[in-house]
Specification:
It is built from ten helices and twelve strands. The protein is of the alpha+beta class and 323 residues long. The protein has two domains: 178 residues, Ribosomal Protein S5, domain 2, CATH 3.30.230; 130 residues, Alpha-Beta Plaits, CATH 3.30.70. α2 packs antiparallel against α3 and α3 packs antiparallel against α4. It is globular and about 60 Å long.
């Protein structure tokens, strides 16, 4: 085991979960990223580069530090003090897996720092245990599309290579939506009819993605389990999900717990501007500012290097707080 890895740098993609009917089971990685650097230190120091970190703990309460310690504990080693640098393009509490990507980044970086004693499958179990569902963390760790199941101790998964022509339009409203609030509106029971509806669509969606049947996505992404109940939390969502396929989308869904909305698009479809304008117009009609991003499915998942030249750990980075 190499205990002198020096500085470890990890890049981890954002993710979208559910894809409509695949509640807590389907996830896809997206080309937005968090970067983490980590190395041993005489005292714990966390550096932030960029905006949006004002309310994130910059000491040993930091999520990255905590998940790193979970890796060390699992591997039976002690690394009590760390210097951590982080930068992220992933908006917080918008349904794009910001916490999941941070968890994966911390786990992968810590594992690399002590010589990779834990397999990716073991890291996946640790991450799922923290998140309580495997969709976001699976996509961020493995890249592509992940179908997964969690039994409370172990997560089984299959990685699906995204269809080559698949592109993603993300509509990101200018407000945050806590996952706990989005889950609180969900019913405790479903009718047998609605359960069968979702099982059939989720199965069809998975098969369509595996086989590249983009023409089936609009039908396969229909949902009765969570989106109808969350629609009131995202004004304009119901109309966008219903009409986006008429404006050039292959299918549309609430991204994770929201409020981001996603449209899956054939990159050769030719109606990108029409779809983007439609989604923005619906938000404006509801008094909500929103930005759009054209994204790709990330194919690599979490990638890292050891003995990297430090970039994010500079003392010039604002936000340094020592514990």
């Amino acid at each position: 085991m190499n205990e002198n890895a020096g500085t470890v740098r990890v890049r981890v993609p954002a993710s979208t979960a559910n894809l409509g009917p695949g509640f807590d089971t389907l996830g896809m990685s997206l080309s937005l990223y968090i970067w983490i650097e980590m190395r041993r230190s005489e005292r714990t120091i966390v550096h932030f580069e960029g905006d949006g970190f004002e309310e994130i703990p910059a000491d040993k309460r930091n999520l990255i530090y905590k998940v790193a310690q979970l890796v060390f504990e699992t591997a039976g080693v002690e690394v009590p003090e760390l210097e951590i640098g982080m930068r992220s393009d992933i908006p917080l509490t918008r349904g794009l897996g910001s916490s999941a990507s941070a968890i994966i980044a911390g786990l992968v970086a810590a594992n690399a720092l002590i010589g990779y004693p834990l397999s990716n499958d073991r890291l996946f179990d640790l991450a799922t245990g923290l998140e309580k569902h495997p969709d976001n963390v699976g996509a961020s760790l493995f890249g592509g599309i992940v179908a997964a199941a969690w039994d409370g101790n172990h997560a089984d998964y299959i990685r699906i290579e995204p269809p080559k022509n698949l592109q993603v339009l993300a509509l990101i409203p200018d407000f945050e939506l806590e996952t706990s609030k989005a889950r609180a509106v969900l019913p405790q029971q479903l009718s047998l009819q609605d359960a069968v509806y979702n099982i059939s669509r989720s199965s069809l969606l998975t098969a369509a993605l595996v086989s590249g049947r983009l023409d089936l996505l609009s039908s396969a992404m229909q949902d009765r389990l969570h989106q109808p109940y969350r629609a009131a939390l995202v004004p304009g969502m119901e109309r966008i999900l219903a009409e986006a396929p008429e404006r050039g989308a292959l299918g549309a869904a609430l991204s994770g717990a929201g409020p981001t909305l996603l449209a899956l698009v054939d990159r050769e479809g030719g109606r990108h501007a029409e779809l983007e304008s439609f989604m923005q117009d619906v938000m404006r009609e509801n008094g909500i500012e929103a930005r759009t991003l054209w994204l790709e499915p990330d194919l690599d998942g979490a990638v890292g290097e050891t003995n990297a030249e430090p970039e994010l750990l500079s003392e010039r980075i604002k936000g340094e707080i020592s514990s």
